[in-house]
């Protein structure tokens, strides 16, 4: 049991099991993209630790881009506009793999996919460490999933609770 700010969390996925699964995911990606050049697009902040460990096991010729997704109120009546900040790599005609920490409802991923597709990439797949199938209501489920988990809030290994807990090497689940 650990405490992060005012909430208590119980051990859920150990550091060892996360590392083991990430090695398997990397092996799958290495096999699927053999002989190809890949651009990995890492979604910050949450995916920083997952990306660091995953990419150490990638043996492909690759570029790695780090982006943030931001929402802001447009000045026009269209309301909320989303953009990807920091994408300096040219992804036109590239095979792209998005590296994300968690796909929950899928709303965020749908927006990311839409924006990246508009940049003309050749192919696009999603690698997400965590996936909550019971919460998912989107169009783009991850192609590479580390762990499918129940619909409960988790923290650690890059995932935060009010910006705390990202440094934990394991993943913890909110107690009921
Ligand atoms: P979605 O748009 O798929 O509903 O949510 C995606 C974002 O919500 C993730 O990138 C993540 O930042 C946040 N999120 C969703 N579920 C969790 C969770 O269980 N723990 C944490 N720390 N963040 C979550």
Give an account of the 3D structure.
This protein is of the alpha/beta class. The chain has one domain: Rossmann fold (3-Layer(aba) Sandwich), CATH 3.40.50.2020. The chain has three helices and ten strands. It has a six-stranded mixed β-sheet. α1 crosses α2. The longest helix is centred in the N-terminal third of the chain and has 18 residues. The model has no long low-confidence stretch (mean pLDDT 94). Bound molecules: guanosine-5'-monophosphate. Guanosine-5'-monophosphate binds next to β6, α3 and β9.
Report the portion of residues in β strands: 35-45%
Radius of gyration: 16 Å
- What is the count of DSSP helices, taking H or I runs of 4+ residues? 3
The first-to-last residue Cα distance is 12 Å
- Bound heterogens, unique: guanosine-5'-monophosphate
CATH third-tier fold name: Rossmann fold
SSE topology string: EEHEHEEEHEEEE
CATH architecture: 3-Layer(aba) Sandwich
In short:
The protein is α/β, with parallel strands linked by helices and 176 residues long. It contains 3 helices and 10 strands. It has one domain: Rossmann fold (3-Layer(aba) Sandwich).
Write the layout of secondary structure elements.
Elements lengths: L1 E3 L2 E7 L1 H18 L4 E8 L3 H9 L4 E13 L6 E6 L9 E9 L3 H12 L4 E9 L12 E5 L5 E2 L15 E4 L2
Guanosine-5'-monophosphate (5GP) binds next to strand 6, helix 3 and strand 9.
Note the main attributes of this structure.
binds guanosine-5'-monophosphate, alpha/beta, 22% helix, Rossmann fold, single chain, 4-stranded antiparallel sheet, 6-stranded mixed sheet, globular
């Amino acid at each position: 049991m650990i405490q992060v700010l005012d909430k208590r969390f119980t051990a859920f996925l150990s550091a060892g099991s996360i590392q083991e699964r990430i090695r398997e995911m990397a092996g799958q990606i290495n096999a699927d993209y053999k002989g190809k050049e890949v651009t990995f697009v890492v979604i910050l902040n949450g995916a920083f630790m997952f990306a660091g460990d995953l990419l150490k096991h990638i043996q492909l010729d690759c570029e790695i881009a780090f982006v943030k997704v931001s929402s802001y109120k447009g000045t026009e009546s269209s309301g909320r506009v989303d953009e990807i900040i920091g994408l300096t790599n040219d992804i036109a005609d590239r095979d792209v793999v998005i590296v994300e920490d968690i796909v929950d409802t899928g709303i965020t991923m749908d927006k990311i996919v839409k924006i990246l597709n508009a940049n003309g990439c050749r192919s696009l797949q999603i690698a997400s460490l965590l996936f909550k199938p019971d919460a998912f209501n989107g169009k783009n489920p991850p192609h590479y999933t580390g762990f499918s988990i129940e619909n409960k809030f988790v923290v650690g290994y890059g995932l935060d609770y009010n910006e705390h807990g990202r440094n934990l090497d394991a993943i913890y689940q909110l107690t009921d």
